[in-house]
Amino acid sequence: MSQQAAAGPPGRPILIHDPTLRDGHHAVRHQLGREQLRAYAEAADAAGIPVVEVGHGNGLGASSLQAGRALLSDAAMLSVVRDALSTSKLGVFMLPGWGTTEDIRQAVAHDVDLVRIGTHCTEGNLAERHLGLLRDAGVDAHGVLLMSHMATPERLAEECAQLVGFGATGVGILDSSGYYLPTDVTTRIAAIRSAVDVPVMFHGHNNLGMAVANSIAAAEAGATILDACARGFGAGAGNTQLEVLVPVLERLGYDTGIDFYRLLDAADIAERELMPAPPTIDSIGVVSGLAGVFSGFRNRVLDVAAREGVDPRDVFFELGRLQAVAGQEDLIEDVTLTLRAGSTGRDERTASHV
Q1: Which residue positions form the known binding site for Mn(2+)?
Q2: Is the CB of residue 57 less than 8 Å from the CB of residue 30?
Q3: Which residues are known binding-site members for substrate?
Q4: Same domain, 83 and 135
Q5: Which residues hold substrate (predicted)?
Q6: 130 belongs to the catalytic site
Q7: pLDDT tens digits for range 104-136
Q8: 354 in a domain, yes or no?
Q9: CA nearest to 88, candidates 36, 56, 55, 43
Q10: How far apart are the first and last CA of the chain?
């Protein structure tokens, strides 16, 4: 078999952004070590993956009791992966509120090539200071909107146009809960594409088994940057599976510039070195996607629900009803305790009538 995933001349270019070493951290409670980071980064670099992103699952500055303590500091992770990359660019992610301008400066000092600043889908204004800092430093900076299913296509387009005004050199949306179907993606990417003149990206999660299809829909609607992780390694039910997405794109006439065999090798290394098992779409993953809840909440919900004797499915649906977003991890505890109290009250009323 040829190392090229598809026959024929190169087609429309698509840039693949690989957050395996950042989003994947959610699946292992942010405990990846130096040798694990190095092994995958070197394999991704050899495959020609354009951008390799590293960090705590919630990004720069997020290692904490609330979001989970990472095994390594941000500086250590950046140093290891920077040294492992010879051709791939080094990317990082930051959420204002977790990370600070000082975290950005530290990342710039480690020669990062691309910084993504993420905000809730209707709060792009929170990225203004950070994008301005990166613009002034001459660093490629993208503004990305989380939990994007909570906003209309028109509102997302307005937010992305605002991010470009702040200095973003690229913009896009994250399907943070794996809620979208392809038509949802098409309308949103098309609206954003018509509102900006910078590259547009899409980041999918696989809770409903739609991540690859949604990524293709994004490309067909005009996105030129797609996120994907080896073996889908990521929060909850996992992300778009990188080694599946690339050959599908090539079959459709897109050009990723990635060496297919070496990509498969990198995915094998990821499965062997980074994760106890690849992500699966289990019952909790489906519920989380249907509820529209941030995939990174999964482990915390399961822990608190088990401790309090509450059905985690109820917790996810209630968090969805409340439109909980990344950064509101404390709400998991509140919701679970409220559900437990309600259940206890029902049990007591039932017993009094026996």
Answers
A1: 23, 203, 205
A2: yes
A3: 22-23, 176, 203
A4: yes
A5: 22-23, 176, 203
A6: no
A7: 999 999 999 999 999 999 999 999 999 999 999
A8: no
A9: 43
A10: 71
